[in-house]
Amino acid sequence: MRPLQFIRSQTQLVILVVVFLICAAVVPEFLNERTVLNILKTVATSGIVAIGLSVVVIGGNLDLSVGSVFSLMCVVSVKMQNTSPWLGLIVPIVLAVGVGALNGFLVTRFRLNSIIVTLGTMSVWAGAALLYSPTIMTVPGTFYEKISNSAFLGIPTYVYVFFAAAIVLQVVLFKTKFGRSLFFQGVNPEAAEIAGINKNRSTILSMVICSICVAIGAILQTSRVGSGYPISGVGLEFSALTAVLLGGVSIAGGKGSALRTVIGVLMLQVILTGMILMDIKHDWQSIVKGALILVALTLDAWQQRAAARNPGGLAA
Amino acid sequence: MKGRLRQINYRQAISDNRIFVFIVALFVIVQAINPGFITANNVKIIFQNLSIEGMVAIGMAMLIILGEIDLSVGAIMSVSCCVSIYLQPYGILPAILASIGIGTLAGFLNGALVVKSGVSSLPITLGTMGLMNGIVYVVTESQSVPGTNKSFLYVADTMIGGINLVIYLFIALVVVFEFVLQKCYFGRSIMAVGGNRFAAEYVGLRVDRVRVLVFTLTGLLSSIAGVMTAARYNIASGHIGEQTALAVITAVLIGGISLSGGEGSITKAFFGYLFIISLQNAMRLLKFPPDLSTIITGALLIVILAIDAVTIRRNQFK
Amino acid sequence: MTGTNSEIYIEARKVRKVFQNTVALDDVDFEVRKGEVHAIVGENGAGKSTLMKILSGVHQMTSGELVIGGERAAIASVADSQRYGISIIYQELSNFPKLSVTENIFMGRQIRSKAGVVNFAAMASAVREMLQEYEIDINPRARLDNLTVAEKQFVEIIKAVSVYGTKVVIMDEPTSSLTRIDIEKLYKIIENLKKHDVSVIFISHHLEEVFEIADRVTVFRDGRNVACIERKDFDEDELIALMLGHSIHKFEKRRIDRREVIFEIRNLSIKNRIEDFSIKLYKGEVLGIAGLTGSGKDELIKSLFNLWPARTKDLYLKGEQIAIRSPIDALEKGIVYLPEERKTQALFPEMPVYLNILAIWLFHCVKRAGADKRTELREAEALIEKLGVKTSSPRIPITSLSGGNQQKAIIARLLAVGPEIMILNDPTRGIDVGSKDEIYRLIRQLAENGTSIVLVSSEMEEICYIADRAVVLSKGVVRGEFSDEDVNMGNILPCAIRSDKRGVGA
Fold first, then answer.
1. What was the ipTM of the complex prediction?
2. What percent of chain B has pLDDT over 70?
3. Which residues of B touch C (CB under 8 A)?
4. Quick one: average pLDDT of C119-125?
5. CA triplet C364, C366, C371: central angle to 5 degrees?
6. Which terminal Cβ of chain C has fewer Cβ within 10 Å, N or C?
7. Which residue of C95, C142, C146 is in closest CB contact with B199?
8. What are the tens digits of pLDDT across the range C268-283?
9. Nearest CA-CA distance, residue B263 and chain C, Å
10. Residues of A280-297 as b/e, b for ≥16 C-beta within 10 angstroms?
């Protein structure tokens, strides 16, 4: 492929490399192995949420409740772990299926806007998390905390879990009927319905996948840190969405991929890490995230409008 | 003559105004369970609680009627509160003016971004919300910062006839904005644009101007709320306004204003918000755990949305 | 009462309108007198809508001259045409359903004080006066969506005439969804308009109504003004003959062996749209359902796939009763659907041509949709060739193709799943002549190979051209059924444009 074509098709990757280089230039510690490792470690748990969210966004929906669900899963997992380590693994995932199915059901049965529905469920699960466990809880050393704290080639296992999840979702998106149907319904839901694509099933499934990813992220987080507290997911929906948009997933749906979201997650973390190393106060991160969302949205809208105006021929 | 009566749909009129039924039902039921509900003192508390955030509800009502939404209203409130606290040393008036100015500007930016970019107001205001919240966290360094000028508190604590000044302000705003919405050219333009944007353009209304203006006014109202928050609690914190967007949107919807736009009134939004605050008050009186309260608000939003959606669907196939 | 006031208000000379490759209007002359009711009749695509769009500022003419009120006029926008006193009455486009009649009429031009306070009382009494003047019985405070279709139309007319000072009202198929009573009311309003020296351009395919109300009739055919006839010379047969003209080529009618009924609809009723519709589809035939605006054909087809609710509906496939709850059910039974609005209902805009073509195939014909790009491209390319879709590569976005080629791609999508029954809704709408021809040939070929096709169309000529059997739908009721050689314009057109007392809401 010619270089210009390559750059255009892999814009996000190129931007990631550029951003990384810029940070490395400004902050020499960036090229340190420890920094890169830190980035990977931080990215793992929130990144899983982001790739789950990107599946939903590709299908043309949004899930704002991921943060609250994360909180809920954290405390559920920890409480269950105190009973039995296996429960701490299974219960959150089963619960996630229910949560995702509920979101999906509300959106499809009543044809509601997923953003506002998940705004509502966000509240519900946030309250539920606090009710279930008003304070922080710790976990006794369990067997999978040991597993997840193990490392392979110097990189912790949970980072591998993240990349594995990304690959799995990538395969799902591009090699299964369900995944590919998401692209169609994201671009034109009405045409998808007429073409016989089962929109309801796909939407519900995409939301279930997202919630399961959130549960996995929560399990990884609690095993890594050894505790869970009921507001651990506050603001997570925001970070996840920023990462998703940075990764080139269109808010309107129909465009993107899990691997692209990984790049988006990395990009975000590189920027944030750069900020930390430059001694910029933690509070600035929210500002940066907000700004990045707006930039990503406007760029996306621009691209869409340019494409519509310039189809290269006669349009319908 | 019979034909003319047929054209007024009585069933529709009743279902449009069901919030009043809900409110009455709520008060009756709760009073039966706990007679401490409808007492002069409790009612005063309810109104105290609602008069600040209620101002934001006024703006949100107009936005939803317009067919838009703004998730950043809580953040604007927080920013204004913050500015009030930090500029207190320079005098009360400058602090208030600056806060309101900045909040209004924030609203204007929301409107300009939405209109110019052509992107839906939902993701855009999600972004501006994060941005503004972030600014507050930075400035307050994630602490709760108390104000230094004690006289600022007088703004909120003044009583006239035993009733808080803020309550008067709120009622005044409700009256003014309802008047504009129902009886003025600008307000009717909002209804028109929200009802059918293309038709509004067709008859010559300045659609973009109306949209930007309503976002700006919402910013103004949120900033006034922010100033009042500073006056009452004398604290700046990133947590202020966290629940506002959700509470206010739910309030507007439960008041009977449809998300599809083009109809509604400030009065309905007021009663919707009154319902929510009363409900929260009742839950507190009945010793519900506070987090259950959050859950119920969220669930309420979903139920209202579902009812709204079913109505819209029914009208599609007339 | 004829518009004897012979003063000409609008005069259009040698108007020509060319769209890309098609000549929509070919040096057309047209005039409107003050206070007259001037009807325009003609087939779909004959040019009447185009001329009206030019007069109302939606399109600009390629060449030609306009003289309005004695002066040279240039209409470059909708606002311009409003300034010249021309208004076109739309049914849905320009109203506010949740606001009152009064507000709808006055929106944007309310009676108000300097400060912006609206004077509702004054507006209401003004509206009451307007309504009285035109003898319309509507409550000025009523919410617009509580009015009937006819009443909404009347409000539009009042708005145009009283508030915007319109002198020429254009009504495009105003009676299509109206009951007989409403039509009488409309006539009364038109009479009142004439009294006020307002002219009415009345486009309609219902000849009887034209005869009832018009002072003059202009006949359009193939983009030309073929005749302008005064009321005293009205003759139905002559008008139909003028509308028909001659077809481009003749497709030979073939002998169909009508033995196997592959699909049957019984007792299909849709509230306010269709009354008790029943039809049989034989294997290998092309069945045409001809219906103009307001006939209910779109809702009829949508209800087959449960995209529109039907009150009663019995469907039989090869003799067995079936239920179709969604397009998916239909697909599984071998029935495919080509929707009428290509852009919003069929295309996936940013996606490449080959994915658009495989949109159904991927999910219903392949076991694992594993993105085996080579197989997919091959499959798509085969279809592209079979249908003659002109595209430089299967990978370019489908929006780069011309309308005709896009439609061929969508048809390819349907063919990819090897359907037994194809239901095509206005398949050649907005397509160049060359592509139209290719699509007709394709339809004939498919039918000969055993596919059964239902062709729903508002273009009568198309039905006559390609259908083996035709059913004419008007106002929700079947007006006539013709087979083989009887499927011709001479039979079909009069059927479609006669509106007798029957029909939905009659």
1. 0.85
2. 96
3. 3-5, 7-9, 12, 183-186, 188, 191-192, 195-196, 198-200, 202-205, 262-263, 315, 317-318
4. 92
5. 115
6. N
7. C95
8. 988 878 888 999 998 8
9. 6
10. eeebbbbbbbbbbbbebb
A40-301 CATH pick, 1.10.357, 1.10.10, 1.10.3470, 1.20.1260: 1.10.3470
**Cα Rg, chain B, nearest whole Å:** 20
Mark yes or no for CB contact C402/A184 under 8 Å. no
Q: Vertex A199, ends A197 and A200: CA angle to 5°? A: 135
- Residue B188 has its nearest CB partner, among C79, C110, C309, at C110
Specify whether the backbone of C464 is left (phi greater than 0), alpha (psi in -120 to 50) or beta.
alpha
Residues 6+ apart with CB under 8 A from C123: C102, C103, C105, C106, C110, C111
Q: Is A178 on the interface with B (CB under 8 A)?
A: no
* Burial readout C78-93 (b: 16 or more C-beta within 10 A, e: otherwise): beebbebbbbbbbbee
Whether C2 has a pLDDT exceeding 50, the answer reads: no
For residue B131, which residues of chain A lie inside 8 Å, CB to CB? 286-287, 290-291, 294
Q: Which helix (H) or strand (E) holds B19?
A: helix B18-33
Q: Count of CB contacts below 8 A, A vs B?
A: 131
Contact B92, B151 (CB under 8 A): yes
How far apart are the C-alpha atoms of C162 and C188, rounded to whole Å? 16
Q: What angle do CA B41, B42, B43 make, to 5 degrees?
A: 95
What's the burial of C175, exposed, middle or buried (CB within 10 Å: 0-12/13-18/19+)?
A: buried
Domain ranges of chain B: 34-304
C100: helix, strand or coil: strand
Q: How many CB pairs lie under 8 A apart between chains B and C?
A: 91
Tokens of A161: 């879990």
Tokens read off for A287? 């500002």
In this complex, which chains have at least 3 CB pairs below 8 Å with chain B?
A, C
The first and second tokens of residue A111, run together, are 């044809």
Residue C308 touches chain A, beta carbons under 8 Å: no
The predicted-structure confidence for C41-71, as pLDDT tens digits, reads as follows 887 667 888 888 889 888 888 889 999 988 8
In angstroms, the separation between the Cα of residue C144 and the nearest Cα of chain B is 9
Model pLDDT for residues A65-84, shown as the tens digit of each residue = 999 999 999 999 888 877 87
Q: Is the predicted pLDDT of residue A305 greater than 80, yes or no?
A: no
In the block, residue with structure tokens 């304070």: A135
Could you please state the CATH topology (level 3) that the domain comprising B34-304 is classified under: ABC transporter involved in vitamin B12 uptake, BtuC (1.10.3470)
Give the mean pLDDT of chain B. 87
Each domain of chain A, given as residue ranges in start order, spans 40-301
Task: Kindly state whether C344 is in contact with chain A, defined as any CB-CB distance less than 8 angstroms.
Answer: yes
Q: Which residues contact B196 (CB under 8 A, 6 or more apart)?
A: B262, C94, C95, C96, C97
Task: Give B136-191 pLDDT, tens digit per residue.
Answer: 888 887 778 787 777 777 777 777 777 788 888 999 999 999 999 999 999 999 99
Distance between CA C413 and CA C408 in Å, rounded? 9
